[in-house]
């Protein structure tokens, strides 16, 4: 028998506070207020979250050149905290068209061409690099109906603090973030590892209906994994989406959304990753993952303060 679900857990209260902040920012819709909230939270978290700060610093030192001065590492760490809290407050945005007006899109033709083949498309993004929430606003404003795939305990990218499900989380917090997600995408699907092939068939059917699926390449949920070098460590990556793309013969396109040099955002949709007919299933999956993980690694090393997952990075 499963243990009884607790009514509330400590991390739930933290999540409720974040929900309240998002709702304040959503109702006021003031860029100045949002900047103030983000700056205050980032500075406070840098000083108070000692365990998280040390994890970030340790992983930065592992991934970046040894010649980098401690002051540079500290500044990047501060920027990582800021990027994290900015991503959290991005959930307060309401006007997709206004955000898209400040965005440049490169590679939209790759996605339109993929959809013209009527096999759907899979956008492979990062769960912790760049502007994940903003990217959905930009895609929505440009006519792309995206189906977002999330882990069950995604909770707006905040997770459940490793504590599992509670009644408050299940009935209040997760539905809240589900509503916020559905306001910027066409549909949301939550990973169900217990269903195995049944879940994969469901996704394949969506692709057969010419859906656009969007999923994080660095998400942890999955039944099978491949270990690859990533930011100075050996990290396990789920192979399920690469296998799904091969099964459904669906184009698999890398997706990045990052701050633009002149302000606003740059949304990049890469061309479909090549499917070599000469490779076995496992070899093709390894090839696709190696290519996309290698590109993500290079982008993060070039702009380490845009990656707010440094504290979660764990090697084997």
Number of helices: 11
Number of DSSP-assigned strands: 9
Helices and strands: which structural class? alpha/beta
Spatial extent as radius of gyration: 19 Å
Gap from first CA to last CA:
32 Å
Name the quaternary structure: single chain
**Percent of sequence in beta strands:** 15-25%
Low-confidence stretches: none
Spatially, the strands of the biggest sheet line up as 1-9-8-2-5-3-4
Structural overview:
With 316 residues, this protein is of the alpha/beta class. It is built from 11 helices and 9 strands. The protein has helices at 10-28, 31-48, 50-63, 70-89, 96-100, 108-116, 132-141, 167-182, 197-208, 240-248, 281-302; strands at 103-106, 121-125, 146-150, 187-190, 212-216, 225-230, 233-238, 252-259, 265-269. α9 (197-208) crosses α10 (240-248). The mean pLDDT is 92.
């Amino acid at each position: 028998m499963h243990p009884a679900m607790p009514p509330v857990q400590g991390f739930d209260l933290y999540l409720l506070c974040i929900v309240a902040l998002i709702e304040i920012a959503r109702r006021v819709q003031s860029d100045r207020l949002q900047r103030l909230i983000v700056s205050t939270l980032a500075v406070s978290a840098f000083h108070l979250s000692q365990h998280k700060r040390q994890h970030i610093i340790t992983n930065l030192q592992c991934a970046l050149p040894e010649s980098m001065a401690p002051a540079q590492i500290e500044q990047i760490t501060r920027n990582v905290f800021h990027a994290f809290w900015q991503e959290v407050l991005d959930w307060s945005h309401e006007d997709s068209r206004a955000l898209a007006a400040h965005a440049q899109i490169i590679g939209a033709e790759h996605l339109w061409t993929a959809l013209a083949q009527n096999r759907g498309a899979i956008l492979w993004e990062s769960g912790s690099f760049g502007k994940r929430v903003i990217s959905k606003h930009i895609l929505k404003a440009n006519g792309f109906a995206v189906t977002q795939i999330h882990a069950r305990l995604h909770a707006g990218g905040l997770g459940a603090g490793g504590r599992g499900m509670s009644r408050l989380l299940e009935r209040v917090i997760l539905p809240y973030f589900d509503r916020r997600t559905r306001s910027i995408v066409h549909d949301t699907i939550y990973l169900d590892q217990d269903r195995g092939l049944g879940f994969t068939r469901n996704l394949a059917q969506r692709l057969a209906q010419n859906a656009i699926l969007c999923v994080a390449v660095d998400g942890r949920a999955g039944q099978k994994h491949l270990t690859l070098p990533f930011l100075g460590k050996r990290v396990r990556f789920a192979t399920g989406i690469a296998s799904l793309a091969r099964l459904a013969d669906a184009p698999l396109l890398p997706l990045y959304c990052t701050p633009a040099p002149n302000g606003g955002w740059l949304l990049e949709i890469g061309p479909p990753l090549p499917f070599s007919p000469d490779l076995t299933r496992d070899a093709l999956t390894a090839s696709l993952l190696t290519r996309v993980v290698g590109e993500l690694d290079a982008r993060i090393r070039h702009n380490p303060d845009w990656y707010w997952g440094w504290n979660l990075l764990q090697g084997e």
